[in-house]
Amino acid sequence: MNINKAVDKAFESKSLKEIADSPVSALQGLSEGDSELLLKAFNVKTIRDLANLNYVKWAQAIVTLSDTEQ
Fold first, then answer.
1. Around Cβ 38, how many Cβ atoms within 10 Å?
2. Nearest partner of 60 among 70, 43, 50, 45, judged by Cα
3. Residue closest to 27 by CA, chosen among 36, 15, 19
4. Nearest to 10 by CA among 39, 18, 2, 70
5. What pTM was estimated for this model as a whole?
6. In the prediction, which pLDDT does 70 show?
7. Residue 29: phi, psi to the nearest 5?
8. Integer Cα distance of 8 and 5 in angstroms
9. What does the mean pLDDT of the chain come to?
10. From 35, 41, 53, 60, which residue has the greatest number of CB atoms within 10 Å?
């Protein structure tokens, strides 16, 4: 994966651990306003928090399983 396509320019040279612990606004397409909304709604502060959010995990599992459903 070319991480440069997923994160803002300021985060391109950072390690994956640093990126995981960065604010969600480090992801391309997510603004500071989006970060504030995620914080208020789900207490999500970092990319790691977002990835570990149960709703995200459930959604990913449902989509993965739906691809194998007959």
1. 19
2. 50
3. 19
4. 18
5. 0.89
6. 85
7. 95, -10
8. 8
9. 96
10. 35
